[in-house]
């Protein structure tokens, strides 16, 4: 389930308790996404997620783990899967996989297997890591300018 504009999600994972072997559910809540290196308010973001969780899932009784990661999303929103364009022919990548990766992880396994075995695959060009999306030029220029601005702000801090 998605939680709005900041990339949030909820899912339930079954787990087993240590020695007792009793099964229970773990609620996984994520969100409050931001561009890499462009936010320094992690505690406030955790607090928002915790407040939302307490409001919508009052039965959740403890927070066991918190983490933050960086997510890269290509401008065309498709993962990069295939031969690494700047490496040897036997080096493959599967990166920028959106969400939990179930669909694109499966596609990566199938596509890279076909590439290794020299078989044709209709998805090769679609996911090719070196692809250029001409329609995304405006977005690319905008994001590049955003990155330069972020670097300048960091440099100004000293």
Class inferred from helices and paired strands: alpha+beta
Taking the sheet with the most strands, its summary is: 2 strands, antiparallel
Report strand order across the widest sheet. 1-2
Uncertain ranges: none
Tell me, what's the shape?
flat
Order of helices and strands: EEHEEHHH
**Helix fraction by DSSP (H/I, runs of at least 4):** 25-40%
How much of the polypeptide forms β-strand, as a percent range? 15-25%
Tell how many strands the DSSP assignment holds: 4
Task: Describe the model.
This protein is an alpha+beta fold and 158 residues long. It is 35% helix and 15% strand. The protein contains four helices and four strands. Strands 1-2 form a two-stranded antiparallel sheet. It is flat and about 50 Å long. The mean pLDDT is 83.
Topology (SSEs and partners):
Elements: E1 9-16, E2 23-30, H1 42-56, E3 80-83, E4 92-95, H2 102-117, H3 124-127, H4 137-157
Brief digest:
Helix content is 35%, strand content 15%.
Properties at a glance:
two-stranded antiparallel sheet, 158 residues
């Amino acid at each position: 389930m998605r939680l709005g504009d900041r990339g949030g999600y909820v899912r339930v994972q079954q787990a087993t308790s240590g020695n007792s072997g009793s099964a229970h559910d773990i609620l996984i809540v994520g969100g409050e996404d931001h561009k890499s290196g462009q936010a320094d308010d992690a505690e406030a973001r955790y607090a928002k997620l915790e407040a939302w969780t307490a409001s919508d899932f009052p039965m959740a009784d403890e927070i066991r783990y918190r983490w933050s990661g960086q997510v890269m999303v290509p401008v065309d929103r498709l993962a990069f899967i295939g031969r690494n364009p700047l490496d040897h022919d036997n080096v493959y990548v599967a990166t920028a996989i959106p969400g939990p990766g179930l669909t694109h992880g499966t596609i990566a396994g199938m596509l890279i297997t076909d590439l290794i075995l020299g078989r044709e695959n209709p998805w090769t060009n679609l996911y090719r890591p070196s692809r250029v999306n001409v329609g995304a030029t405006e977005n690319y220029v905008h994001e590049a300018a955003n990155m330069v601005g972020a670097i300048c702000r960091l440099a100004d801090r000293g």
